[in-house]
Amino acid sequence: MSTKEQVLMALLANPGDWLSGDQLAQQTKRSRESIWKAINALRKQGHQIESRKNRGYCYVGSRRLDANAIQIYSDQQFAGPIEVVAQTPSTQILAKTFLSHHQPRLAAFLADEQTAGYGRRGREFYSPAQTGLYFSLILPNPTNALANVGLLTTGVAVSVVNVLQRFYPNKDFALKWVNDIYLNQHKVGGIITEASLELESTSAAAFIVGVGLNLTTTDFPQALQARAQSVDPTMPVDRNQLAAALLSSLVALSKRYATADFLPIYRAKSLVLGQQITLQVGDAVVAGVAEAIDEHGGLVVRMTTGERRTFTSGEVVKVGLPA
Question: Are residues 198 and 242 in the same domain?
Fold first, then answer.
């Protein structure tokens, strides 16, 4: 481990506390000059580190995403590579490129900005620099089966909301089936789950989970202003800390999502249950009342004809008044 990484680990272990140069030198077994150089290198990477004579150094946060900080915040428990880039068309593309050259394995890809971020049906996800968190997570699929994908998607949504609730305890997050995160009737985040299929088979070697969150964004394009917002432009959070919490939560979910133990929370957070909805399924548009989320994460809809149908894919494009 480099001196820079050791110093960062020591600072993050003592947030808000002052550590003298001597303390850092003793902890890392490096010289005071090496500590000074490491501090300056960390500052150039966007880490905000205050210094005071006779007190030393105090870590106060970071303006940039940093793979080392994310790994440290996750207690070194993320058993795969973490890649952070300043800009990319889409973190989903980074993940797919990685899979095209490697056997399926746990890996995370984060970007400060996406120029072509996308969600379901290829719809653009606005991803400006520094005000959001955008990442993709490769989850190997040891069984290769495509069963219970609906549970994975709904489970990811609950996991993300649970973590957001910890960072924003006063916010009342909601979910629009199947994977949009809402606040005050406005979208603040989206999730996409794509399968990496084995050639000449219908099995999935891995799932690529993409998460996009607008945290402090205020300058939405005019076309989005009526339906999108940020979580809280007045309350910035440490994005490295948030990323670490989300990655840890999603890895834990990947080992148990088949239990469906999160479905009661998903149903309680649902924006669509009991509502008249319009659902886009491929090229077809159907309407009815969303009556239930079944045990596989499917949406049960009572059609205008009275027939009850269960949908495992599609997008709710309109939510009306209670039936």
Answer: yes
User: Chain-wide mean pLDDT for the chain?
Assistant: 91
Place of tokens 């993409």: 210
Do 165 and 55 share a structural domain?
A: no
Separation between Cα atoms, residue 13 and residue 24, nearest integer Å: 12
292: nearest Cα among 315, 308, 316: 308
The annotated binding site is made up of 114, 187
Query: Do 166 and 298 fall within a single domain?
Result: no
Q: Using an 8 Å Cβ cutoff, are 94 and 88 in contact? A: yes
What residue type is 150 in one-letter code?
G
What CATH number did the domain enclosing 309 receive?
2.30.30.100
Q: What is the largest CA-CA distance in the chain?
A: 77
Beta bridge partners of 310: 300
144: left (phi over 0), alpha (psi -120 to 50) or beta: left
Residues 195 and 303 in one domain: no
Bridge partners, 299 (sequence order): 293, 311
User: Into how many domains does the chain fold?
Assistant: 3
The reply to whether 262 and 130 lie within a common domain is yes
**Nearest to 120, CA basis, from 320, 315, 318, 298:** 315
**Residues annotated as binding site for biotin?**
114, 187
* In the predicted structure, residue 38 carries a pLDDT above the cut 80: yes
202 DSSP assignment: S
- Separation of alpha carbons 276 and 287, rounded Å: 7
pLDDT in tens, 197-254: 765 555 688 999 999 999 999 999 988 888 899 999 999 899 999 999 999 999 999 9
Short-list 118, 75, 69, 127, CA closest to 96: 118
Sign of CA dihedral 189, 176, 266, 207: negative
Task: List the CATH number of the domain containing 27.
Answer: 1.10.10.10
Domain range enclosing 12:
3-62
User: Does 164 share its domain with 280?
Assistant: no
Q: Contact at 8 Å (CB) between 136 and 109? A: yes
